[in-house]
């Protein structure tokens, strides 16, 4: 059950900045340290950039989450782009089809606690990540 | 939001603002390389103290700036990477390898002074 739900439409590089700023403020609001908020904002930046580079547009959904013991933040990046044909390849360091460093997805996985990806060619991509407050 | 570039003798100083878009970073890259040529600068200091996030794009652009400027025979020093930003960069796998870094503007200038004295 989440109380906060922030939706950011991503279609340009300006939206990347907006999404990570909103993510940082939500993380701080939820009691994350400013160091953790930086990790979360960096992950959001990478996810939003993937949307702009590969799909053109999509959205980032920011929510607060809680389980029996902890609170956290959930970030879901979704688009209706071309999808990822080979997910395990995309999760490998140094792999990129866009001429970038290829650290995006594996990097995001390292920055966050939980990572989930769903993508099929022609059916878009959905990446969900979570970080729990220590 | 354009990044202001300050000329201080033979050194150019570019000071980043908090929320730079990809377009701003690309604009800075061209502006810096052009001004290094125009002023025959020996060095460039890029001050990123205000930057809240250094993602793979920003880091790649900084590396490109440093390498382009090196090809002009000048030196680039990145100063002011915040501890939290450094932590996130390492987690993400970004290293800025081959690019000089210093604690702050003062240390960056001291580094360059020493380097140029050695070269004289």
Describe this entry's structure for a reader.
The complex is a heterodimer of chains A (134) and B (120). Chain A has 134 residues and is α+β, with helices and mostly antiparallel strands. Chain A has a single domain (5-132), classed as Heat Shock Protein 90 (2-Layer Sandwich), CATH 3.30.565.10. Helices cover 38% and strands 28% of the residues of chain A. Chain A has helices at residues 13-29, 34-55, 87-90, 104-111; strands at residues 5-10, 58-66, 71-79, 114-119, 125-132. Chain A has a five-stranded antiparallel sheet with strand order 1-2-3-5-4, covered by helices on one side. In chain A, strand 4 and strand 5 (125-132) form a beta hairpin. Chain A is globular. The mean pLDDT of chain A is 90. By secondary structure, chain B is α/β, with parallel strands linked by helices. Chain B has one domain (5-119): 2-Layer Sandwich (Transcription Regulator spoIIAA). Chain B has four helices and five strands, in the order ββαβαβαβα. In chain B, strands 1-2-3-4-5 form a five-stranded mixed sheet. In chain B, helix 3 (83-92) links the parallel strand 4 and strand 5. In chain B, helix 1 runs parallel beside helix 2. Classes of the chains: A alpha+beta (134), B alpha/beta (120). The A-B interface holds A 13-14, 16-17, 20-21, 24, 34-35, 38-39, 41-42, 45-46, 49, 93, 100-101, 103-104, 106-108, 110-111 and B 19-23, 52-57, 59-60, 82-85, 87-89, 91-94.
Short description:
The complex is a heterodimer of chains A (134) and B (120). By secondary structure, chain A is α+β, with helices and mostly antiparallel strands.
Write the layout of secondary structure elements.
The complex is a heterodimer of chains A (134) and B (120).
Chain A: E1 5-10, H1 13-29, H2 34-55, E2 58-66, E3 71-79, H3 87-90, H4 104-111, E4 114-119, E5 125-132
Antiparallel strand pairs in A: 1-2, 2-3, 3-5, 4-5
Chain B: E1 5-8, E2 11-15, H1 22-39, E3 43-47, H2 56-71, E4 75-79, H3 83-92, E5 100-102, H4 105-119
Parallel strand pairs in B: 2-3, 3-4, 4-5
Antiparallel strand pairs in B: 1-2
Helix pairs in contact in B: 1-2
């Amino acid at each position: 059950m989440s109380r906060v739900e922030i939706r950011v439409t991503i279609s340009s590089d300006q939206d990347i900045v907006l999404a990570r700023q909103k993510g940082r403020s939500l993380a701080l609001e939820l009691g994350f340290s400013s160091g953790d908020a930086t990790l979360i904002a960096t992950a959001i930046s990478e996810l939003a950039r993937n949307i702009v580079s590969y799909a053109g547009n999509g959205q980032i959904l920011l929510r607060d989450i809680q389980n029996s013991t902890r609170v956290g933040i959930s970030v879901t990046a979704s688009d209706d782009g071309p999808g990822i044909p080979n997910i395990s390849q995309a999760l490998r360091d140094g792999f990129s089809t866009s001429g970038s460093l290829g650290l995006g997805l594996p990097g995001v996985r390292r920055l966050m606690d939980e990572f989930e990806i769903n993508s099929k060619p022609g059916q878009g991509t959905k990446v969900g990540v979570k970080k729990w407050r220590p | 939001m354009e990044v202001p570039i300050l000329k201080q003798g033979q050194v150019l100083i570019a000071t980043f603002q908090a929320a730079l878009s990809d377009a701003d970073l690309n604009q800075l890259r061209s502006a810096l390389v052009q001004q290094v040529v125009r002023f025959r600068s020996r060095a460039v200091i890029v001050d990123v103290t205000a930057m809240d996030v250094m993602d793979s794009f920003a880091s790649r652009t900084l590396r490109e700036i440093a390498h382009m400027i090196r090809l002009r025979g000048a030196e680039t020093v990145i100063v002011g990477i915040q501890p939290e930003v450094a932590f996130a960069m390492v987690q993400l796998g970004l290293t800025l390898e081959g690019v000089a870094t210093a604690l702050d503007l003062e240390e960056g200038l001291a580094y360059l002074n020493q380097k140029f004295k050695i070269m004289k």
